[in-house]
Amino acid sequence: MSHATASRVQHVIGDPLSEAPARPREELEAIFGDIQADLRYDMELNGCLNCGICTATCPAAHYYDFSPREIVQLLWTENLEGIYDAMQEKIWACAQCYTCAARCPFGNSPGGLVMLMREAAIKHGMESAKNVLRPFSRVMLKLISTGNQLAPNMITPDHFADWGPNISKVDAPLKLLRKAIPMPTLNTTETAWEVNLKTSIELYTIWEMTGVLDQLEGIDENLFDVITDIMDEKREDYDDWLEDQEDDDEDD
Question: Which domains are present in the chain?
Answer without folding.
Answer: 25-124 (1.10.1060.10), 134-251 (no CATH)
